[in-house]
Amino acid sequence: LFEIESAVGDVELEALEYVSALRGHIEGGGDPGGASPPGCSTELSPLAARLLRAHFVLSRGLVERSMESKLLLLAALSGEHVFFVGPPGTAKSMLARRLADVFEGVFFEQLLTRFTVPEEVFGPISMRALEADEISRKTAGFLPSANVAFLDELFKANSSILNALLTLLNERAFDNGSARVRVPLWCAVAASNELPESPDLQAVYDRFLIRRAVSPVSDEAAPRLLRAALGAPFARAAVQTPRPVGAQRTPLLTAEDAAGARREATARVTFPERLLRILAELRHHLRTEVEPPVLISDRRLARTVRLLRVAAFAAGATAVRELDLLLLPHVLWDQEPMQADAVRQWLLDRFAAVHSRFSLADARVRQELSHRRLFIQAALDSAAADLSELRFTLENQLVEVLEAQTRLRSQLRNAKPGGGAGVLWLEPAELAQLANGVLPGLAAAAGQAERQLQQVLELLSIAGLQDEALRRGCLEYLALRNGLPISESDGASPWAVASAARDASADVKGGAPE
Predict the structure, then answer these.
(1) Where are the domains of the chain?
(2) Deepest in the core among 74, 338, 388, 470, taking most CB within 10 A?
(3) What b/e readout covers 91-100, taking b as 16+ CB neighbours within 10 angstroms?
(4) Looking at the domain 46-221, which fold is it?
(5) E-assigned strands of 236-347?
(6) DSSP letters of 237-255?
(7) Lowest-confidence range among 197-206, 233-242, 468-477?
(8) In 3D, which of 118, 91, 120, 117 has the Cα closest to residue 108?
């Protein structure tokens, strides 16, 4: 019995040391010293510092508008447009005006109705051009000359305006008479109290990559809103006033900053294959399993990839991360804002898919271990080969779940205040969803995978024992401890014989065994 217990102890220690070393290699190699996550710089870049300052300017004095401010900055940085849907009085137009102030750009806004004529948006016809038998618009002060535009009640516009917007928004070009001219538009912000229902509106709707439902301030935050209203300095500041002639002010961000960020993101930020697969799976899920289906155009999908790379670059990363994919709920919804919640939940479930796979496989692995343990006694060489294959599979699965766990922990640690090197695009509530919804499952899966791998390593070591009686005794010892069935083979069990001998010895001495 002592020989069996000693052999099992050696086997267990060897397996435990191997699994612990594997965990240490994954966790230590991916995050040396626990200082900063892989793929991230350690200093706040000048661009990130300006973005943080711009976010403060956009959101100051406003309650529950932090995420909207971040999305506007990300859109301007990426060269994309933003669509806000929500009731009146939720600061949609104010945010657009502030964005123009951040860039020190030319601002244009227009409330659109079915009676709005193109002259109100694109400028009046030039009388001088008409005298020369040409049709040309005087665009100064109108949308074709603006850097930031706010188009209120977009979907109430008539077809002549909407058709002209297609090229202007997508290609930054405007057909002025017989000439196609470039426009200096950085970002267009559209707003509506309702979502488009007509298929004719889908083309212009698709031009707005970022979409956000803006709700009134919650009851919990209403006291903050009322306290802010008592001072009301920001309500007056929201209305643009002309600056004195010759007055100069350094913009927080420039068009060159945005263009440079896009160039650097393209050159330096990679998009890991595992995340590309997740994005493709999400598109398929939205098209085939969501009702009503969410159809993601090829153009929208390609622009989404570029947006995520710019977001990662501004966050100080050299690769797109799981954290960045949590921006997708603000991009990949269509007819119902609730679809954004479905996208977010799908992503969290997908990030936890490693945990789910381990949960489903647990019973099968336990059964396989039981079979291999019994098979060792009948066909040693074949059982050892099968166990080696099972070890390879379990080791790869353990590495996968440990890497996923390490990545997410690293990203969340970097997302703490003062812990990152760049802009954090997500809000604390979204980070909490990731931490509470995914990490516990991954931790459980890692522990489960380690236990299963240890059992395989123990069986492999026992299979290598030359003494058949010792081998059988060790197998039955482990079976009893792990709750596995013991085979009913011919002859007395070495473990049973040794146990009976120990009990008999204790009875003779009149005391309990040590």
Answers:
(1) 2-35+365-509, 46-221, 262-351
(2) 74
(3) bbbbbbbbbb
(4) Rossmann fold (3.40.50)
(5) none
(6) HTS--PPPTT-----SS-H
(7) 233-242
(8) 120
Cα 300 to Cα 71, 104, 165, 233: the distances in Å are 16, 29, 17, 39
Round to whole Å and give the CA distance between 425 and 423: 6
CB 108 within 8 A of CB 149: yes
- Provide the token pair at 445: 């899966």
Domain 262-351: which CATH class? mainly alpha
Euclidean distance between the first and the last CA atom of the chain, given in angstroms as a whole number: 13
* DSSP per-residue string spanning 92-158: HHHHHHHHHHHHT--EEEEE--TT--HHHHH-PBPHHHHHTT---B--TTSGGG-SEEEEETGGGS-
Which residue matches tokens 């977009």? 154
Kindly list the distances between the CA atom of residue 340 and the CA atoms of 56, 240, 313, in Å, as whole numbers in the listed order. 25, 33, 24
Rounded Cα distance, 151 and 187, in Å: 11
Q: Are 154 and 73 in contact (CB under 8 A)?
A: no
Tokens of 86: 């929500």
pTM of the model: 0.78
